[in-house]
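Agenda item 2: D-malate complex prediction
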Amino acid sequence: MQKLTVNGIQMAFERWGTAGVGRAPIVLLHGFPLSHVLWRVMMAEMGELDVITPDLRGCGESAVVDGAYSIADMADDVIALLDALMIEKAIIVGHSMGGYVALAIARKYKERIAGLGLVSTQALADTPERKAARYATVDQVAVQGSVLLANSMAPNLSADPQQGTVLWEMILRQPAAGLMGALAAMAERPAATDLLPNFKFPVAIVHGLADALIPVERSREMKALIPQAVLTELADVGHCPMLEAPVETANALKGALL
Ligand code: MLT
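Presented output:
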């Protein structure tokens, strides 16, 4: 695991493959409440491609940041990491919350994007009810810590019961303050639907048909607004296609984005 101080915080990331192989480096952004570890199984399918898997702020081994921050701040972190690595353009792939970050990058830094992958995510903002539920969870995590989310979310993140323990352990390792920061950041994110018709880069959308957290309709709606997007729907796959169907997920991303 490498660490660099970028945008005022220490960011941890793994870099795989060989720099300079493929069209542009590929950045894989994990969802909530997870870390870069989420992508490790799928890396076997990426060969020698130059792939970077960061931990978003407050997650995994990256710094926990005091005070409120936004999904746009997370996007700034990722771009600052690319700057530090002297990468002009990258293929940005985001899973769920990582997809919200990828869309925030598309809003502010579209010139840095060589391709966009949206995995198990959505362009909609939170409804008022969802927002209120997020803040209620912030209060609960403040008291009970990350075990609360490990217990409540791990069983819903994958349609494959065998992944439950892996996900439970990944969530348990997350710093509680980072979980609280990410929940608030997700609650306050704007919708990104206005951006979609203007995307000029290749777009891959991947969604499991058994996703218990974000329904496949959200991806179909995004596809309808992005003419060049390639949507791959995976049968019997839940919210974590990179764990549940790593070969199909990697092929869908590579096929549309390389
Ligand atoms: C995620 O998997 O990143 C989150 O569940 C997304 C969300 O809560 O909106």
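Discussion summary: Residues 31-32, 96-97, 186, 213 surround D-malate (CB under 6 Å).
Owner for follow-up: CH.
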